Amino acid sequence: MGLFDRFRRQPAGGPAGMRARLEGAMSRRRLRGWNPPLENVNALVASGGPKLLARARELVVTNGYAANACEAFAANLVGDGIKPSSLIDDAELRDQVQRLWLAWTDEADADGLTDFYGLQAMVAREMFVAGECFVRLRPRRTEDGLLVPLQLQLLQSEMLPFEKTETAANGNRIRCGIEFDAIGRRVAYHFRRSHPGDSTDRRVAVPETVRVPAADVLHVYRPLDAGQIRGLPHVAPAMVRLFLLDQYDDAELDRKKTAAMFAGFITKTAPEEPMIGTEEADPDGAAIASLEPGTLQVLLPGEDVKFSSPADVGSSYEAFQYRTLLGVSASLGLPYHLVTGDVRQANYSSLRAELVEFRRRVQQLQHGVIAHQLCRPVWARWLETARLAGRLDLPDPAVAQMVQWIPPRWDWVDPLKDIQAQVLAMEAGITSRRKVVEATGYDVEEVDRENATDTARAEGLGLRYRTSPGETQGARATPATRPDPGDGSADDSGDDIDAAATDRATNQE
Questions:
Q1: Quick one: pLDDT at residue 252?
Q2: DSSP 78-108
Q3: Which of the four, 103, 108, 164, 477, has the lowest number of CB atoms within 10 Å?
């Protein structure tokens, strides 16, 4: 065995084998020009954040696909609101807390434009466009007349300057507008007094900053890397493709416009002779011949007509658009039909598979970002403010803070099959009725109260529906608990209903 063979047979665990496995670290011909800098995400955000943010905002305003994707992102992330369900054991106190919270949500917006759940939707849109949103907790005076003297003010990402990186007078570090103490905790935010792009609110020549304690600010963003301190726009991975695709579409529209400009050119051997059909001349003196519908024009000897043939879009236009928009949808993490509204190539199975994966991603953001960074601290501050204002008497404030946040319900792809599957899961003990109801976005205790109220009203009017408890809703009534019809025989109407329901289910299968 020669020297060459020994090197070639070197074990895979040696240096040569390691180099072979790290193909992405090679500097051969194909990868010679790929030399990205080894920069931290915070350095990238600090240097390119302002321009990235400006481009993202313009794109969402001017590009139809980006605007539609933004609305789809917000609608699926928060819908009509991620709502609290208090875990207080005392039913009366729990009901009091829930009712006061519901009334306060209408007063939550400091600008008075929407309610708390509308603010959630605005935060979701800001996460798509800017990657982050700041929520300032604003205590109010008693004379303001609010049920709970607390409101929320939303601040855009531009209000916190990316370039403000320095050492504060107290020795703390300020990084991208956020002040950290010696052990890395956020202690304050240095906000601008006015938006740098709002020409209608110029209080000073250069907007100065004001220090706001971190306890009064909620920074809502999705951290992609460990140690990341500012958010990145959700639309960032798709920005270049969307921008270039928009330019391509504009060019194709101009091409079609040019193609629609039908023109003919007459050539003749004797230019000085008058042309048949000549009516007027353009400003340069060239003769213009008109063409009317149904005309059979006889040309003079030596005259010939040639028509313009502008280039058309071509057969690859739609296929190219489809593939490009697929890449855009993958970059955004949104289903193709939500970005484009195109469901021509979709079917039940493909839509369901796509939505299941998309909903998993949305649930990550719902519980890990919106509920944890926004809803949970707002609930805690609201409870404390309501207690101090005398609106709530909480024996144990710590216990009162325990709450479950219920995201909006998902619409069923196939309502009948989905409901039947949930009923079977409850009957088999795989899940509870509370879990099933809360998965639809409702509070199970509220549903029970409404059912009890409806049943009492129906019984008072002598009415009876198939939704009455004991028939098709809740636990089935046993023979011992069914009312006696008065003739000495047991009432078997419930059995008839159950049998009919079984027959219908069998026929549907």
A1: 83
A2: TTT--EEEE--S-HHHHHHHHHHHHHHHTT-
A3: 103
334-366: pLDDT as tens digits: 999 999 988 887 777 888 888 888 999 999 999
Q: Is 220 exposed, middle or buried (0-12, 13-18, 19+ CB in 10 A)?
A: buried
CA distance 57 to 133: 14
Q: Say how far apart CA 65 and CA 39 lie, in whole Å.
A: 31
Cα-based torsion angle of the residue sequence 171, 176, 181, 184 in order, rounded to the nearest 10 degrees:
-140
- Residue 131 and residue 221 in contact, taking contact as beta carbons nearer than 8 Å: yes
Which two three-digit tokens encode residue 367?
Answer: 């519980």
Residue 200's pLDDT is 81
| Kind of pairing between the strands at 278-281 and 166-167 | unpaired
Contact 131, 225 (CB under 8 A): no
Nearest Cα to Cα of residue 410 among 151, 154, 77, 187: 77
Residues 6+ apart with CB under 8 A from 353: none
Which residues are CB-neighbours of 221 under 8 A, at least 6 positions away? 127, 131, 132, 133, 230, 231, 369, 373
pLDDT at 97: 94
Neighbours of 382 (CB within 10 A): 24
- Output the pTM of the full model: 0.76
The contacts of residue 75 (CB under 8 Å, 6+ apart) are 121
Q: What span, in angstroms and rounded, lies between the C-alpha atoms of 64 and 169?
A: 47
Q: What is the residue whose two structure tokens read 């890449």? A: 327
Q: Return phi, psi of residue 200, to 5°.
A: -85, -5
At residue 414, the pLDDT reads: 75
Task: Name residues of the chain where pLDDT drops below 50.
Answer: 4, 7, 472-509
